[in-house]
Amino acid sequence: MASPLIYLTEGGRIAFSSLKNRFSPKQYEGDAAQICRQIVKDCWNGRFFQTSTKEGNFPQFWTRDFGFCTAALLKLGYKEEVQATLRYALHRFKRARKITTTITPEGKPYDFPTIAADSLPWFIHSLKLARFPYQDHRAFLNQEIQKYFQELLDHNTGLIRPELELSSLKDLAIRKSSCYDNCMVGMLAQDLKSMKLVNPFAAYHYPELLLRHFWNGRFFSDDLQKKSFVAGDANIFPFLSGLIKDEEKLRSGVQAMQEAELDQPFPLKYTARRSGIEFRWQEKVALPNYEGNAVWMHLGPLSVKLVKAVDAEKAEKYKQAYQKLIEKHKNFYEVFAPDGKLYRSWYYAASPGMLWAANYLTL
Prior knowledge:
Layout: H1 4-23, H2 32-43, E1 61-62, H3 63-75, H4 79-96, E2 102-103, E3 109-110, H5 119-129, H6 138-152, E4 173-174, H7 179-192, H8 206-214, H9 237-240, H10 247-259, E5 278-279, H11 281-285, E6 295-296, H12 299-310, H13 312-329, E7 335-336, H14 357-361
Antiparallel strand pairs: 1-2, 2-3, 4-5, 6-7
Helix pairs in contact: 2-13, 3-5, 5-7, 7-8, 10-12, 12-13
């Protein structure tokens, strides 16, 4: 666990940044595409891609957020910058002897709020996509793979251990071996097949495990508790990870999300309601409904890419809604309240200038 001083320092920095963005947010000129291109450019600080511009709340490296954007950044022509970002993160992870959820703006790796099931998978995935020359770092990467396998996996089932309270995509929600987390294990196992690294996951067949443990006949359940609500991340990442390739299941999952109105007023909400989900104290005290039925823009464009495969007309409507949203705010924001207004709490204001704008540019 990181030093309490890191949490206090980072919490204070984010509170101050939120205060500035609440009253004087930066605005960009141009149409939606021009705005997003400027944001991506501003997220590059000369050494690595920050998760937000310097005006945002996250002018630092976040492992999962960079992983969300790696493919888009490469498609946009940022190969050298992507490799430089991976080099920056890898050197700091090696120094800290662990791959973490994030690195402070000052360059110190730490986990928020706990270790995560997706940090290693996203980092390995980015290395693979970027064709990063990782060979000189194999000993460290193999060590992290083995540690992940020993500490997070239930070796009887091949799934993330349900008793662990891990950081994740919804890092303030407490879930029991979530579908998303197990998609990350499956993605890691899949990526390691073609890399010269150890693969202790090879004995498990993750497409079959996901279907057996999470598919309920209509959509993928949020976690092993198999509650009745539809969760956005659970019905995106089985397909985005490449583990499930069944078009009918994709169509069914998309329909379930639409019927639950996770795409309203625009994609995508985590859930239709926050009831039935257990949250950490931070969400209850400082960030009410931050991860309940708020609308998240890291999931949005990623989900539209999937919708496009089964309903091109609907995907185009979503894209037009984003265009209007970006041009209205003259920026690419992190998260919105369920009614489509910018997310606000007494402590926090949604961050502008998110690197996720790269995914909008590649829709």
